[in-house]
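Figure 3 (text version): structure tokens given as input.
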């Protein structure tokens, strides 16, 4: 509904009554000639100009700032409205609008994104959502709305696999931007996935947008090319040129981007990217340069001291670039970690001499020198803020100023903080500065090291030496001993005392901090001042000791804080304790030494401050205790990596969201327990989330067993011994008992299904025994007997269990009582088991001494490696002590002492070992050295397994030195002995692997070693498929190598060979070959399919129909592409054939798409265009807000309506295009609308008449008033010529009809 504001006579009178008398008079009388004009103020009087600031010399006056366009300020808050049609709504229950799931979803979206949502229902039951907030929040909210309130559709778009990375963008930014922009979810197949289909999910509109954007990206990349060239690293400097000039010129000339790896990166590959023609041109030019340099360049090698290499290189390699620029010669320096001193010069022979001269000049242009100076004088040599060193460079003002500025940047405001610094003039001064000397002050050393250009070093050396002599002659130091409790009083409040002494006696005083617990105070400075300062400090200390006046208010208080919290209170790098000390500056806080493990923290200072600090720290510790609740979660070891997640993503997310600390056991640890620390509620949440991950990943069953709570303690056993023995026996299941005193009977068992069932039976059986007739007995036996009692692989103890039915539990390494053995079962079973065990233990207590004969040649085997074999025998056989005769004696008698049974068993074992040693042979196995690494396996795992399985010793030979490394020739003669030529029929020493052990075992081990020798087979694969087998960045071939455990070698591109080599174990080769051939079949099938999809068809269509075929925002052509799975390409603007449309796809699909386009064209050709005249005043009403009105008419009548543009000859002419019958109907409708809207226009114009000034006659109101001037000035900028007349009669009024602003021009 519209409203009109009408100006009545009464409202006019009311307005006029507010004017001043002069204004009323002027308004009534109108202009009265020149006198009145003279009385008016001028524009400059009314609006005096601002004072102009004079421009500085040499600066031209800029344009008038008012004439430049000022960028409008925009609000950071935006509002967008989204409409969800009824058919696409997820929640269609009209009775629950504003309630239920839909409302919850909206609240969740607002909470997640920070945007504000308002929902309303349209007449068509569609949902309108108004979203307000910052742009980023609105875009995120839009995506959430589409995915959660709107039904989803999905589609796929196929683009070449190599274009996928451009859709993803750097760090996934492009993909995220696309998803936000189109409000869709885009899924791109992983690099190893051969599919080229990208899946898009979202609304229909979003799908079309996303599909269009992806195809645009792909089309852009189709025009580009990438070329990789492998060029020897030594020729790279000739391609880049000095300071990269040559490569820059090449890029500018060809338009391609050329990426040459920097000297620090050991890569030979040069990558050229750009348009195909540009890349081809760049490759050709690079090849020409490379071939020319390879042909003409020669090398010379010279020896330069390693310490001088950095001078040849220069800062950031600038010297090397200078030499290359001047001479065209490349200088190759060995890497820093190499001991070689050989520098190689490569270039044209005529230029090598000049380059060599420059290399030697640079190498010898620098020197290293040192100045003797006591270390305590170093900071005085530096001076306050580096003043003394700055004096050295007074003759070089640039360097001096740079030096001072650099000291400030480094954060050394005082001498005190600079005494241990390292000053590098090379870093301080630019290339143009004359001083380039590195000055190094090393703490604790009585010297200063200088390094730099010889002449500069000599100057600096002399000046520093003069400073040292001067300081030594007039400086002294002394140390006094003062009790640390007086130190803070010597310092005084805010350092008042100590600062006064420093200033008065011109000395430096160092009082050690409290944590050093030192009583030595060091005074440095003028000898007389040092003595006077020493005297005053000692007097102060003695006064305090006598009368204690400084100490009467001091208090020392000990605070008990658990040692585990100390590090948390101190904080990283002492940040937290610094905050506490800043808060209580008068309180000294002393923590115990970490090695003491003491809980006492000492506070010392004024009584009131100590109390405040004590309460503050108590509160802090209480919070830490609350946050230190800990819970242990047993998780099977194989799932720890899944809980951590890729790059620690999962564990980091759980830590952040639950605000807990989660510690996992080390990878090489046997522990499966994950410890969670934090607030109790948070720990429980984190625990549940971790358990949920384990449950999802594995066949983990969790069952609850009901066992009376009164039996829990007896089932757990002392320190968990009983329950631990069940867990170990049942494959490491986890058994969890409820908290003691909770009264809960449920016991949880978690683990693999079979093991859980086994543990359940054992627990229930044990519980039943406990309830009815359970009996427990404890025995004691020396810990060294336990292994013997248990037996090899648990054989001895299993016999006792099987014969008696009792359960026998030995202590674990964690148990304090290592002698206690527990027997559980029925009374009869326990008694019988106890009897057997006691008999065994008693026999072990019967200590005997026995001897045996062992050939002295075998003694070394037993005592080698610190007696490892003997230690194993002692562990296994109840601690038997075996004594061998002293080394050098020829005795063969070996003594054994221990329990009788243990001695007998140990003796038997040693005889077996001696028998093995007597039967030992040495076998040689010849395997080429190049396979040794492969045979050993990762960290020698394969060889360790063979050694263990066959009980043999295996020794690999030393690696053969490369020829040319072992001997150096001087003056054409070798400095080593001349080697005789080796027999080619004999195996090389470096190929012989030596095995020791029993003959049959060695033979078996040799066979096992030979089975590990890699074998190579050749597979024929068409050359054109090689790049697809390799995959993007080698992902395809890596996947195959990992899957089949082989090495696959693809021939170099330039060889154009079809043969691919597979190397690996013989057992793996067949599978690898089958897998490779299977992949070839897949690729060939893909090639055939690609060829079929490459069928092209051209259709001729008049360019005027192209926009109609494309449709609004590409809707029609996208529909054709999707329906027929083809690519339709329209001509570019500069193409010759503007009427040619190209269709690419399967032949039948391309024909169908052509027919669909032809049908559209036929329909368009049947259309007619008719012009009608519509009053221009009604155009805006017909078009409607944002074109809604005219779009509705066009959709309803299936026509196209074109309105005139600004400046057209006939502003009333409207063109209607469509089928004849539709055009007639549309024209009738438009004419009807015109008639209706014109009536409204006439009515509005009639109402506007009331708002014009009255022209009636009368004594007061009815006399002609003329125009009200308002505030008038003379000589205004606009009062020139005819423009003044344009401004005079403007009167404005607003009519709210259609929210338009009407400006009426008066006469």
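Below: residues designed for each position.
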């Amino acid at each position: 509904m519209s409203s009109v504001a009408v100006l009545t006579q009464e409202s006019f009178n009311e307005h006029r009554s507010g004017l001043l008398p002069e204004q009323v008079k002027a308004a009534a009388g109108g202009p009265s000639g020149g006198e009145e004009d003279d009385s008016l103020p001028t524009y400059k009087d009314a609006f005096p100009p601002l004072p102009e600031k004079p421009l500085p010399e040499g600066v031209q006056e800029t344009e008038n700032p008012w004439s430049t366009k000022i960028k409008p300020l925009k609000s950071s808050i935006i509002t967008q409205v989204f409409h969800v049609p009824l058919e696409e709504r997820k929640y269609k229950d009209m009775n629950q609008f504003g309630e239920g799931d839909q409302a919850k979803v909206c609240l969740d979206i607002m909470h997640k994104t920070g945007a504000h949502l308002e929902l309303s229902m349209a007449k068509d039951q569609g949902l309108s959502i108004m979203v307000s907030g910052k742009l980023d929040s609105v875009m995120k909210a839009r995506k959430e709305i589409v995915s959660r309130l709107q039904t989803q559709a999905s589609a796929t778009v196929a683009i070449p696999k190599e274009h996928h990375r451009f859709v993803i963008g750097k760090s996934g930014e492009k993909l995220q931007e696309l998803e936000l922009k189109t409000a869709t979810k885009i899924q791109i197949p992983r690099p190893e996935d051969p599919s080229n289909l990208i899946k898009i999910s979202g609304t229909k509109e979003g799908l079309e947008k996303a599909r269009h954007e992806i195809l645009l990206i792909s089309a852009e990349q189709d025009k580009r090319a990438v070329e990789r060239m492998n060029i020897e690293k030594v020729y790279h400097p000739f391609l880049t040129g000095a300071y990269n000039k040559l490569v820059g010129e090449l890029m500018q000339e060809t338009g391609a981007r050329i990426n040459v790896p920097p000297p620090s990166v050991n890569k030979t590959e040069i990558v050229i990217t750009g348009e195909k023609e540009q890349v081809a041109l760049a490759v050709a030019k690079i090849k020409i340069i490379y071939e020319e340099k390879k042909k003409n360049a020669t090398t010379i090698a010279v020896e330069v001291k390693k310490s001088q290499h950095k001078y040849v290189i220069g800062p950031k390699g600038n010297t090397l670039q200078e030499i290359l620029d001047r001479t065209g010669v490349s200088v190759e320096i060995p890497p820093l970690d190499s001991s070689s001193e050989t520098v190689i010069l490569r270039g044209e022979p005529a230029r090598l001499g000049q380059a060599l001269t420059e290399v030697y000049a640079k190498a010898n242009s620098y020197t290293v020198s040192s100045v003797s100076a006591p270390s305590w004088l170093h900071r005085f040599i530096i001076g306050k803020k580096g003043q003394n060193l700055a004096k050295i460079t007074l003759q070089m003002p640039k360097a001096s100023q740079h030096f001072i500025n650099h000291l400030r940047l480094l954060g050394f405001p005082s001498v005190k903080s600079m005494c241990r610094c390292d000053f590098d003039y090379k870093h301080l001064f630019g290339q143009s500065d004359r001083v380039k000397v590195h000055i190094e002050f090393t703490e604790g050393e009585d010297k200063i090291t200088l390094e730099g250009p010889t002449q500069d070093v000599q100057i600096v050396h002399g000046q520093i030496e003069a400073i040292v002599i001067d300081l030594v002659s007039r400086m002294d130091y002394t140390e006094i001993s003062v009790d640390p409790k007086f130190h803070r009083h010597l310092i005084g409040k805010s350092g008042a005392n100590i600062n006064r002494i420093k200033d008065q006696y011109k000395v430096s005083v160092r009082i050690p901090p409290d944590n050093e617990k030192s009583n030595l105070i060091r005074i440095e400075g003028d000898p007389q001042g040092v003595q006077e300062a020493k005297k005053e400090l000692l007097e102060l200390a003695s006064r305090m000791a006598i009368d204690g006046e400084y100490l009467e208010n001091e208090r020392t208080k000990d605070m008990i804080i658990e040692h585990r919290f100390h590090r948390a209170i101190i904080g990283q790098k002492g940040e937290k304790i610094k905050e506490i000390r800043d808060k209580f500056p008068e309180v000294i806080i002393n923590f115990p030494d970490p090695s003491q493990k003491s809980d006492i923290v000492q506070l010392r200072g004024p009584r009131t401050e100590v109390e405040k600090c004590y309460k503050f720290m108590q509160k802090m510790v209480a919070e830490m205790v609350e946050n230190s609740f800990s819970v242990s979660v047993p998780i099977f070891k194989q799932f720890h990596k899944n809980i951590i997640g890729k790059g620690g993503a999962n564990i980091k997310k759980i830590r952040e969201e639950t605000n807990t600390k989660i510690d996992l056991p080390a990878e090489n640890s046997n522990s499966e327990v994950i410890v969670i620390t934090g607030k109790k509620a948070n720990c429980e949440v984190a625990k549940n989330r971790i358990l949920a991950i384990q449950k999802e990943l594995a066949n983990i069953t969790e069952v609850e067993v009901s066992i009376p709570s009164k039996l829990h303690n007896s089932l757990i056993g002392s320190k968990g011994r009983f329950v631990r023995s069940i867990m170990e026996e049942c494959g490491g299941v986890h058994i969890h008992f409820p908290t003691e005193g909770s009264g809960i009977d449920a016991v949880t068992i978690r683990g693999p299904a079979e093991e859980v069932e086994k543990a359940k039976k054992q627990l229930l059986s044990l519980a039943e025994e406990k309830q009815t007739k359970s009996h427990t007995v404890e025995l004691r036996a020396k810990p060294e007997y336990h292994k013997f009692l248990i037996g090899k692989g648990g054989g001895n103890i299993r016999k006792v269990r099987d014969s008696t039915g009792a359960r026998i539990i030995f202590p674990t390494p964690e148990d304090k009582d290592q002698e206690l053995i527990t027997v559980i079962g029925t009374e009869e079973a326990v008694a019988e088991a106890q009897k057997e065990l006691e008999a065994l233990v008693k026999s072990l207590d019967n200590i005997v001494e026995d001897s045996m004969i062992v050939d002295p040649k075998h003694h070394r085997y037993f005592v080698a490696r610190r007696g490892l074999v003997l230690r194993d025998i002692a562990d296994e056989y109840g601690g038997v002590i075996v004594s061998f005769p002293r080394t050098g004696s020829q005795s063969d008698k070996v003594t054994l002492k221990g329990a009788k049974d243990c001695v007998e068993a140990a003796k038997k074992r040693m005889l077996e070992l001696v028998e093995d040693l007597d039967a030992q042979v040495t076998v040689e196995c010849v395997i080429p050295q190049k396979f040794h690494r492969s045979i050993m396996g990762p960290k020698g795992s394969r060889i360790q397994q063979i050694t263990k399985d066959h009980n043999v010793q295996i020794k690999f030979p030393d690696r053969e030195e490369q020829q040319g490394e072992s001997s150096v020739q001087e003056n054409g003669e070798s400095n080593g002995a001349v080697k005789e030529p080796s027999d080619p029929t004999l195996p090389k020493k470096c190929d012989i692997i030596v095995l020791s052990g029993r003959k049959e075992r060695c033979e078996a081990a040799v066979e096992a070693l030979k089975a590990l020798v890699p074998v190579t087979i050749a597979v024929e694969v068409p050359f054109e498929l090689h790049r697809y087998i390799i995959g993007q960045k080698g992902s395809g071939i890596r996947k195959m190598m990992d899957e089949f455990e082989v090495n696959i070698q693809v021939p170099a591109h330039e060889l154009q060979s079809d043969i691919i080599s597979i190397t690996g174990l013989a057992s793996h080769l067949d599978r690898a070959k089958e897998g490779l051939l299977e992949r070839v079949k897949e690729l060939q099938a893909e090639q055939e399919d690609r060829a079929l999809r490459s069928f092209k068809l051209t259709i001729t269509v008049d360019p005027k129909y192209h926009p109609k075929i494309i449709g609004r925002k590409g809707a029609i052509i996208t529909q054709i592409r999707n329906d027929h799975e083809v690519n339709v390409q329209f001509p570019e603007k500069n193409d010759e054939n503007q009427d040619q449309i190209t269709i690419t796809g399967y032949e039948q699909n391309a024909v169908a798409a052509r027919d669909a386009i032809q049908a559209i064209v036929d329909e368009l050709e049947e259309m007619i265009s008719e012009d009608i005249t519509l009053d221009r005043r009604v155009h805006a009403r017909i078009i409607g807000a944002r074109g809604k009105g005219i779009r509705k008419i066009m959709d309803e009548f299936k026509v196209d309506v074109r309105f005139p543009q600004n400046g057209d000859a006939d502003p009333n002419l409207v063109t209607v295009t469509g089928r004849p019958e539709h055009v007639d109907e549309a024209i009738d409708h438009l004419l009807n609308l015109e008639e209706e809207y014109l009536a409204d226009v006439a009515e509005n114009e009639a109402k506007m008449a009331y708002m014009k000034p009255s022209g009636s006659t009368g004594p007061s109101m009815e006399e002609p008033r003329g125009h009200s001037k308002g505030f008038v000035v003379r000589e205004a900028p606009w009062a020139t010529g005819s423009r003044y007349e344009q401004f005079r009669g403007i009167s404005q009024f607003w009519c709210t009809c259609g929210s338009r602003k009407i400006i009426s021009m008066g006469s």
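DSSP finds 50 helices and 50 strands in the chain.
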